[in-house]
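Protein modeling request. Please complete all fields; requests missing the sequence field cannot be processed.
Requester role: graduate student
Desired output: 3D structure, token encoding
Chains: 1
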Amino acid sequence: MLILTTVLTTGALTLTACGSRDDDTKGSSGGDTQTVVIGVDAPLTGDLSALGLGIKNSADLAVKTANADKTVPGVKFELQALDDQAQPSVGQQNAQKFIGNKDLLGVVGPLNSGVAQSMQKPFTDAKLTQVSPANTGTELTQGNNWKTGDKKRPYAAYFRTATTDAIQGAFAANYLFKNAKVKDVYLIDDQKPYGAGLAASFKSTFTELGGKIVGTDHINPDDRDFNSVVTKVKSSGAKAVYYGGEYPAGAPLSQQLKDSVQIPLMGGDGMYSADFIKLNKKAEGDIATSVGKPVEELESAKKFIADYKTAGYKDAYEAYGGGTYDAAWSIIEAVKAVVAENDGKLPDDARAKVLEAMSKVSFEGVTGPVSFDEYGDTTNTMMTAYQVTSGKWASKLSEAVK
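Delivered output (402 residues):
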């Protein structure tokens, strides 16, 4: 396709043919500049959009930084962001759209473990690398029998910069039992893969420590009236509620709980959002765990925080900003390795080569050292416990979990 430029000469307009678009950029087929697209899949609308937009923006910043610094000579990165609405069926449709883009060599996301389950097989079949900054469902990388010690990686194209629920649940149980000195807990989950898995992991460690689960229940994550379950919690004598789920339901659950009984609600990284506090007038004292150490406390994150602010994004990077940047950068590093090994250009089988290179990726990222084990899991098992203090999430304890 010819690109025409308009030149103003003595009052007359002259159209000048400047060559084809492919001649200027050389596309993905070779030449001076090749285009590599990195996809982003996250909930960009709906209840979880605060987290999703933070993911999109942080990946966008990684792409812009790579282009500005010419991290991969001869390669220009572009971002393709799709809204999965936190729905597995939409995520599956998005996966096919990503696969259909021949210039796309990696996908960052999704936010939800349930959405990831719908994307893993098509991505692996297409040899298209996927790196989630947020999924914590252990079975995604270690298979459904991981609890019995039979760990098998089900999908070779799936990686993540967030650690697993097996680690997060154990960390939460230890914190509540040993640090918060709570021995009696009422356990609630939202029946989704993330929430149910996290609650099960918490229960296993908490009871091993000597804690008592005084009651269990399940809720519909779309509900906002939880008075019936609150009544059960009150009569159980629980000293805290552990909730496996996300903040849209967790916030009203906490507020209605406090209307009846003054005990804290604890949850995982799906609760760790500024929106949890905005939606909950009685969030004070509530606890959440999240993957990694607070980026605000990391020397390695100072540039990311400054660059994010300079970029002028209107949405906060939220809980997964640092991990998202590292997820996108891991794909960029894999592309860099592939290009370097192929005389400075992308090979015809670029997707397969990038996927192969991912297992060797290792660099100092925003969240610290970034690399992946034989299951595609991050080797960074740092976790942090936060508590709502004076209307803000405040970090209380950070440690690497073995």
